Amino acid sequence: MPPSLTTPSTSTTRTVSTSTTPSTTTLATTSLTTILSSTSAGTTTTPFNSTFNKNLLINGDGETGPCETGGGVTHPTGWNYNGTITQISYNNPQHGDLTPSDPGPSNRGNCYFFGQASTVTSMWQTVNVTHTVDPVLIDNSVVKFNLSAWIGGWSSQNDNARVSIAFADQANQMLGNRTTIGPVSAADRNSQSSLLFRQATGLVPAGTRSFTILVTIICTDPTSNDGDVDNIGIYFYQ
Questions:
Q1: How many CB atoms lie within 10 A of CB 140?
Q2: How many domains is the chain partitioned into structurally?
Q3: 75 and 97 in contact (C-beta within 8 Å)?
Q4: Where is this region: Disordered (predicted)?
Q5: Is the distance from CB of 183 to CB of 151 less than 8 angstroms?
């Protein structure tokens, strides 16, 4: 079931039937605490021990499903979402922020994630790790994580994005503090439309049985929401 959200009156919330420096930031919309407290099913699972050093997310790169090529909203495939967050083509002459030649990941595909119209918009994905890593390894505190993404925006505007992770136990209670990468400001980008690499690493808390990735894009200028993200990855390793 979708979490209970506080959203702008024009937002749309839908639940999809799939199951650099850390910081702690209070977000104006969907919170990880709210998501965790309402998540008891519908999480994604991956075959046991097959994903050490592999991205645990579905569609972290925006390459699964359709991409927006005009001025509309095409929600990201495989993610729950709130608002107008859009999976958009790098080759969108009508409404996109970024082109294939703008600074960003060398291994970018055809699409990225874009805020579009909502003042605050988000997407999230919860992953059950009990079929991914032996819980004994997690509980012995020998499993680490690496969270990374390419984050940025358009020109001199300060619309921005951040990516957060929170870990939860079997009862969906949050363990420890969430870790956040981003935002990236216009000053960070030298007022150039671009994506910059950000990452954070740490120890997967003992007792972890799932985690939630939350992407939040915030508009600070009175036009469209030009915060952008691509190539989101979460990796477990020893």
A1: 10
A2: 1
A3: no
A4: 1-25
A5: yes
φ/ψ of residue 105, rounded to 5:
-65, 140
Q: Residue 41 falls within a domain, yes or no?
A: yes
Tell me, yes or no, whether 187 lies in a domain.
yes
- CATH code of the domain covering residue 166: 2.60.120.260
* Within-domain flag for 135: yes
The one-letter amino acid code at 127 reads V
Measured between alpha carbons, how far is 69 from 102 in angstroms, rounded to an integer?
17
The whole-angstrom separation of Cα 122 and Cα 181 is 15
- pLDDT per residue over 46-104, tens digit each? 444 445 779 999 999 999 999 999 999 999 999 999 999 999 999 998 888 999 999 99
**Is 219 a domain residue?**
yes
Residue 200 pLDDT > 50, yes or no?
A: yes
191 Cβ neighbours under 8 A, 6+ residues apart? 155, 156
201: Cα separation from own chain's centroid: 16
Domain extent for 184: 31-60+121-237
| Sequence-distant (≥ 6) Cβ neighbours of residue 237 within 8 angstroms | 52, 53, 143, 144, 145, 146
Question: How confident is the model over 100-156, as pLDDT tens digits?
Answer: 999 999 999 999 999 999 999 999 999 999 988 999 999 999 999 999 999 999 999
